[in-house]
Amino acid sequence: MHQYVFDFSQGSKDDKDLLGGKGANLAEMTRLGLPVPPGFTISTAACRHYLTTGFEPDELHRQVGTHLAELQERVGRRLGDPEDPLLVSVRSGAKVSMPGMMETVLNVGLTDISVIGLAAHSGDPRFAWDSYRRLIQMFGTTVLGIDAENFDDRLEARKKSRNVDSDVELDVSDMKFLVQEYKDLVFAETGRDFPQDPRQQLDLAIRAVFDSWNTERAKIYRRQERIPDDSGTAVNVCTMVFGNLGSDSGTGVAFTRDPATGAQGIYGDYLPNAQGEDVVAGIRNTLALADLEQLDKACYDELLGIMARLERHYLDLCDIEFTIERGKLWMLQTRVGKRTAAAAFRIAAQLVDEGLIDQDEALRRVTGQQLAQLMFPQFDPDAPRELIATGMAASPGAAVGKAAFDSATAVAWADEGEDVILVRRETNPDDLRGMVASRGVLTSRGGRTSHAAVVARGMGRTCVTGVDALRVDPGARQFSTQDGARVVEGDVISIDGSNGEVYLGTVPVVPSAVVDALHGESVAEADDQAPVVDAVLRLMDLADQQRRLGVRANADTPDDARRARRLGAAGIGLCRTEHMFLGPRRKVVERLILARTAEQRETALEELRPLQRADFTEILEAMDGLPVTIRLLDPPLHEFLPDLTDLSVKVAVAEATGTPDQEAAELLAEVQRLHEQNPMLGMRGVRLGLVIPELFALQVRAIAEATAELRSRGLDPCPEIMVPLVAAVQELESVREMAQETIGDVATAAGYELSIPIGTMIELPRATMTASQIAEAAEFFSFGTNDLTQTAWGFSRDDVEAAFFPTYLERGIFGVSPFESIDAEGVGRLVSIAAWEGKEARPDLKIGVCGEHGGDPASIHFFESILLDYVSCSPFRVPVARLEAGRARLSDERS
Ligand code: ADP
Ligand code: MG
Ligand code: MG
Q: Which of 251, 426, 546, 569 has its CA 20 to 30 A from that of 83?
């Protein structure tokens, strides 16, 4: 018989697959002897069974019964008991935490009868009826699917008629009144009474938690976070403890370090006389956790002791949910906490200093994506600005955009290319789409642990919460402050998630201190970015010591080359040359392509030669001593010719107006002749080089002359010539012969030998399959993974990304675009076969990657696993690639 139900005392933190994160950690805390209310966990296997078959496993009902009986025995109370009822919470909890995405029902077990028992036994009728109304509300929305607004409206109406602001001011008669209203609502909406059988409540709640795995918002979240769709959630049934039993009770959330900045200290929110979600929902503004010391010193001290213990146990930042019931502390949840990028770097460095983790582990704890976030710009500290309010710094960054007051508007504007700031009183999980679409999120309520804050941090969105001074009026689509500032929908505002400030209008942004430091500039100690910068530099050092992969940059201009070098690039892996033939030079290239006589052609070449040589001299000089892989001309011919449509119109108009343009007509005929249906697969790359050999010859000569010139100035230029779009070794041999001849000519003229390696892009499937032949003629391979992805899949990026990628992603045909992360199974396999066979044929063959994948963390890990020599990416991604290349050495993905 399969065991689907486990007591909290039966598991540990390593059982996340089976018990979900929440269940595994409840078990761990129970094992550590911490005060956890007793309970049991229904495994993810039961959920998967339910999700695939539509039915709970047969044994489940009985197993829940057995554990419930044991629980009742243990706590000496019974579900539904008329005297002293046991109440439980039914809580979701998947393997990977999905904050606020799935459902939890509190106070299960209350009925018309047991509520009277609870009132009598607790001596607090208001509390009992408050708990009952919460149950009907949560059960009504979660299990019965009634719109939450229905309940909220009735609560708001009651508060209004009693002329009070907050639910704590409602008394027992109000609660009884609301219970009746809610029950009527349930009947009206579902045609049935609110269930009075506690076991039935329990079973329905369990099923609802299973079902909540597949709510729309949970699916979106999983897609966003790349969590597999089929793992399912566990269900935790946990004895209720009550934070709403008066002012000596309360509920809170705490962090062992600041999840926003990584600073050490006491961080969290506490709300007296409240239950569960109240803190997170931002219903009332919370107290700082430190204030709990005044309210209840004993609990406060105990909590701090537990937090320190958890950190030493988990060796990481933990976040915690707790409840105090009449002076007794209960732990309801812990997990290794989410954190901002800045906090991740600082905490990793701190934990090494504290001797809790070693350097390799520190490197595992930070990611390239986090580093990229820290490289985002920040507000210019010297720019004038109009501060209108200050709230909590919930998720860092500088965001500027038009204020939108609901998610639909935010999404619509973002689709039009606008920058948007989503402004809400508080967010709820339905705002997810709006948050994804926005640059930043601003809420008037909630703390650093509110839904808005947690989700924004997870997504790397800038967020400011709890701006008390804001009066947000979603109906009128505007907000105002006490000082009279008013922002209507569409007005531009700026928010600073690092200090919680809100400004009117646009505040200019400046580069981050981390970028300055990575560029080699020193950062003032007083700068509040200094601790983060410090931690980043330390971890970059560790990564550089660790990594095997070289990191180069894709750079086409001297400026980019210099920038890449300062950011730690060990050379240029891809220097494109097409832009050198555009702009004012395009006309010359046009003449070259259209030349009728050798003489015309020679004149055009003469004109281009010195320009091209100057291009290379500058780049090689900027990269002195480091390899620069220069790709010979790659794009289709038509990119250098006038647009076919424009030209046709011009010729037609000229004819129609009786002034035919002979020259334009001839040009048009030529353009038509060269027109291609499928330029991507047409005359480009090496094909063009073979048809118009003067083009490549020109480039090779310019490279060789630039090299000779720099050498004569005492420098050490290291160019490498890369031939694009080779499919067959014969193509490469042909170009190679020509190139060597040209280089030889230049060397003879210079009077010394010039050795310039010649290699090729591998970007066509045929090239990968004939790599051992091609390697005979190539001193290096550089995988052009963009084109290789296009040609391997048989689709062109520009055409497909908008047309059907959304459908493909939705259907799970791929989890992430193959242009973003290398498709390891298909394209990656071609790469690894070609790399392997190439090296076999020519052991000193150097192998790199120059597609955009070179800067993508997942792809870098793949390239490390197949032991390539280097990756090349855009200059700004170089630090990210260095970090990930170091991290990749630590994982055991190597084949
Ligand atoms: P989430 O995953 O959204 O955090 P939880 O299952 O942790 O959902 O529960 C929601 C809220 O209810 C939390 O604030 C939690 O602390 C509280 N809660 C859950 N179970 C209990 C319980 N047995 N007693 C008191 N409060 C509870
Ligand atoms: Mg929780
Ligand atoms: Mg290409």
A: 251
Residue 755 region, left (φ>0) first, then alpha (ψ -120 to 50), else beta? beta
**How is the chain split into domains, by residue range?**
5-239, 250-336, 377-511, 550-578+617-634+690-894
Superfamily of domain 550-578+617-634+690-894: Phosphoenolpyruvate-binding domains (3.20.20.60)
pLDDT digits (tens, 9 = 90+) for 637-669: 888 888 888 889 988 888 889 888 888 888 888
Assigned CATH for 5-239: 3.30.1490.20
Q: DSSP 3-state assignment of 358?
A: coil
319 lines ligand 1 (CB under 6 A): no
Among the bound ligands, name the one nearest to the CA of residue 102: 1
Most ligand 1 atoms within 8 A of CB, residue of 75, 96, 104 to mutate? 104
The pLDDT tens digits for 263-276 are 998 899 999 998 88
Fold of the CATH domain 377-511: Glucose Oxidase; domain 1 (3.50.30)
For residue 332 and ligand 1, the question of a CB distance below 6 A is answered with: yes
Query: Confidence class of residue 448 from pLDDT cuts 50, 70 and 90?
Result: low
Query: Which pTM does this prediction carry?
Result: 0.81
Contacts of 789 by beta carbon, 8 Å cutoff, 6+ apart: 797, 818, 819, 822, 823, 827, 851
Q: What is the CATH number of domain 250-336?
A: 3.30.470.20
Convert the pLDDT of each residue in 551-586 to its tens digit: 999 999 999 999 999 999 999 999 999 888 888 888
Query: Residue range 235-254: average pLDDT?
Result: 94
Query: Are the beta carbons of 299 and 248 closer than 8 angstroms?
Result: no
- Is 12 within 8 Å of 27 (Cβ atoms)? yes
